[in-house]
Structure to design on (84 residues):
């Protein structure tokens, strides 16, 4: 994976170059020398967003019933409040 860095001016002058560079990795776009944006290919974006699953979705996935998961039971004790 190659990271490409372009200034905003370079991006405006050659958008095609930036789009082609996303095939090799993310393109960092800077404003006044500081990273401000990241340009990704759509495939890279999909890979990033697919990784964020809800725990319920992960537990409901096919084959999930084969995973041994028995968390310990927690007992929460109460105690009277001291209002003195």
């Amino acid at each position: 994976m190659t990271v490409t860095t372009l200034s905003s001016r370079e991006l405006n002058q050659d958008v095609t170059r930036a789009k082609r560079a996303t095939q090799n990795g993310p393109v960092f776009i800077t404003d006044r020398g500081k990273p401000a944006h990241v340009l990704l290919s759509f495939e890279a974006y999909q890979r990033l967003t697919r990784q964020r699953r809800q725990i319920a979705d992960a537990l409901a996935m096919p084959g999930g019933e084969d995973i041994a998961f028995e968390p310990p039971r927690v007992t929460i004790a109460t105690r009277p409040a001291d209002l003195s």
Summary: The helical segments are 8-13, 15-21, 42-50, 55-59. The chain has a mean pLDDT of 85. The CA atoms of residues 15 and 34 lie 19 Å apart. Residues 4-54 form a domain with the YefM-like fold fold (CATH 3.40.1620.10).
